[in-house]
Amino acid sequence: MGAPQARQGRGDASADPEPRGGTDHGSSPQRAQGSSGRTLGDQSPEAGTQSATRISAPSGGGDAEQPAKPKPSGPTGPGNRMALRNWRISTRLVSLLTLPVVAATTLGALRIEGSLNNIEQLDQMKLLTKMTQQATQLASALQEERDKSAGPLAGKGNDKDDRVVSTREDTNRAITAFREATHQIDPGDQSLAGVQSTLVNIDRQLGKINEVRDTAYDNSEYYSLTVQNYNELINSLLLLSQDMAQATSNRAMINNTRALATFSSAKEYASIQRALISAALADPKGADFSANDRRFARTAVDKENEALGRFKQIRQGNSEDLLDPLDSRPDIKAATMYADRAVRDPEGLKAEKRTDLDWYDQDSIKIEEMGKIEQTLLSEMQQKARELRDSAQQDAILNGALILLVLGVSLVGAFVVARSMVRSLRRLQDTAQEVSQKRLPELVKQLSESDPQDVDTSVESVGVHSRDEIGKVAAAFDDVHREAVRLAAEQALLRGNVNAMFTNLSRRSQGLIQRQLSLISELESREADPDQLSSLFKLDHLATRMRRNGENLLVLAGEEPGRRWTRPVPLVDVLRAAASEVEQYERIELSSVPATEVAGRVVNDLVHLLAELLENATSFSSPQTKVKVTGHALPDGRVLVEIHDTGIGLSPEDLAAINERLASPPTVDVSVSRRMGLFVVGRLSLRHGIRIQLRPSDSGGTTALVMLPVDVAQGGRKPAPQAAGGKSGQGAPAVGGGQGNGSAGLLGSAPSRRQVPGSGP
């Protein structure tokens, strides 16, 4: 059976330190349990040390002491029931919010809202005043174009005349300026719906200005048609001043806008007279009106007088002084009299020898004076709008200051009320954070690292002793804190007792198994029958596996091995010793193991770790397949050991869960007994900074990657050069043989199962 050959490399069990190892079959199926995956580089040696420290718990017995109540640093009692700090939270909140809310609602709604609305209206009025000024200028430009071009177009039909071209250019510039001013109106403002409707009408008529110009004064029997076309556009512009009344509720502003609109209408009627008389005087057939034009001109004279009368009634005040130049200047009076006689007397135009240019110049004095009056009205309206806005702004500031004063007084009172709550809440919050982030974790750490009876488990009170809800919450928090400390002490004591039991049982079992192995070794040395020797070897192997399971208890208890190697051991010997811990050791095949040595302090734990992985690999793969173990020396001095099996493999979720469990072993509990192999491997890897990861194998099955750090793989020395391909470490028989050789690369029939060979032969 090959057993005698396997016995040839064995040393005395009592002379050399014994390797750790073992995973029973009951725990092997749990290798797929875990949480989430992690790569080999995710866990550092320092993190492993911290995790091991977290899981370990001290041993010991005894009951946790009851926490002694310390002297409070704050008030010693709740005080008077009527004290402010003893009010109910609902009462405080109502008293805190009532006065500011009532003050803000009452004064804010009645004063600030009214002032802001007034300011908004006056801002709109200011915008409309500016737009009205642009409209008035455009109306004056259209009047100038209509009146000044009447003579050249009615007389010679010369639309290239300088008077015609220059006035049309001025009008075009005025149209552009007016359109730019109208863009500032918000289309969605419902309060300016009338203004927007007027603007739409004006824009439509401005689009037809070229048609009006093309047919201007081309019908000598109906000059009033051209005048009327211009008049429709001018009247639309003048309506803007009336629509301005929609933007304000101030009576003075409404009166000013009506006065402006009325006087602008009078000025338009005077301009109509100037245009019709100029066209009649320039007529090539002779200076005379057609019946339609005379009637239209006479109507314009009557409406001008009527508009001036209405203006005096609307404006009142100094309207007489404002209109005095129109009544007192002789040249203006002469022009007015000539116009009245010309439209009423059929021979009025022929009574005096005049040209259209003479008449235009004479009547323009009146139109210009009326334009000055119009600008005066505009200026007065703008000044009134500014005064009203300034007044509204001052009212808003005054109201705001009054409200701020009331709110200030309210906030001061609210601050006094809230301060009593905030101080208690802040103290409770700070204490709770300190307990959760500092006190309790430090206490749990002390309980896990030392005897719970030696740790002060007294709880310091929050220090809030009021009778309101905050005081009750603080008292409840103190109770919770005390209970948490008591439970932590009991848990630490329980963990210590369990660890002590694990350690005691494991030490006793180790002693008995060691004696059993010594006896079996003695029987093997005296036995000559190959069949009996083979049975003794099997019995020896079972005892070795029993010892490894017992050592798992020491790992669960967080105990270190009792003995350590003092000298480095070749990696190939460590791998062979780990294989000897496995039931199906004959299926394990070593190849390409680098000639490196493992630090002596890690040998026992590394043998134990590799044995657990090899046990899983052989248990979850077909008995007819090989489990291949290879090693790779990396340039940075680390060594990567790969364990390949050809089993059914694991799902990505299972691999991720196992890798997470290997990187971060959980706290010892009942579930560890069902996943002892994974837990032991994780504990041992974290203890020495060894990184382990499971990955799917290219040929099917699973590959376990074991990364040995430099301080472990090089035995404390500088990295050694990797051995030549096809050669194993020292003392390895037939390691690294090709796949075609059925026996090459195998460990032999019965490798050493009880100790790791030293560096010697």
From TrEMBL:
Taxonomy of the source species: Bacteria, Bacillati, Actinomycetota, Actinomycetes, Kitasatosporales
Membrane spanning residue stretches: 396-418
Ranges of residues in domain NIT: 133-388
Histidine kinase domain sequence ranges: 606-712
PROSITE patterns: HAMP (PS50885), HIS_KIN (PS50109), NIT (PS50906)
Keyword Ligase carried by entry: no
Pfam families: HAMP, HATPase_c, NIT
Gly residues composition-biased segments: 726-745
Disordered: annotated segments: 1-82, 138-167, 716-761
Biased composition (Polar residues): 25-56
Keyword Aminoacyl-tRNA synthetase in annotation: no
Domain annotation HAMP: ranges: 419-489
Feature: compositional bias, Basic and acidic residues: 157-167
Uppermost EC category: transferase
Reaction equation(s) it catalyzes: ATP + protein L-histidine = ADP + protein N-phospho-L-histidine
Domain of life, per lineage: Bacteria
Keyword set, alphabetical order: ATP-binding, Kinase, Membrane, Nucleotide-binding, Phosphoprotein, Transferase, Transmembrane, Transmembrane helix, Two-component regulatory system
Descriptive protein name: histidine kinase
